Amino acid sequence: MNWIYLITAGLFEVIWATTMKLSHGFTKLNYTALTILGMIASFILLAKATKTLPLSIAYPIWTGIGALGAIIVGFVFFGDKISLLTWLFIVLLLISIIGIKLTTSN
């Protein structure tokens, strides 16, 4: 269950990062509210996950899910331009997240 909490926390991180952009500097109330709710949900789920998972495992995976998700959202929905070299580092980030998960005993 701790991994489900962690993955869901990472997905909420993507949600709050996306809605933060859509809030246009917190000037759009509905997106601002979604940002705050997403942050709260993400932190609560991360806290639940770190009850049983080591911080040294949970935190990098949480931030990695958020980072990769934000990259995908930016590329797909906001038309962010990503260079070929940057894609290489994105793939390395994904490999690192998978590697951390595969080498942990929890």
From TrEMBL:
Subcellular location: Cell membrane
Membrane topology note: Multi-pass membrane protein
Residues that span the membrane, as ranges: 29-47, 59-78, 84-103
SUPFAM superfamilies: Multidrug resistance efflux transporter EmrE
Chief location of this protein within or outside the cell: membrane
Cited InterPro entries: EmrE-like, Small_drug/metabolite_transptr, Small_multidrug_res
Pfam families noted in UniProt: Multi_Drug_Res
Keyword terms: Cell membrane, Membrane, Transmembrane, Transmembrane helix, Transport
Family: Belongs to the drug/metabolite transporter (DMT) superfamily. Small multidrug resistance (SMR) (TC 2.A.7.1) family.
Name listed for the protein in its UniProt record: DMT family transporter
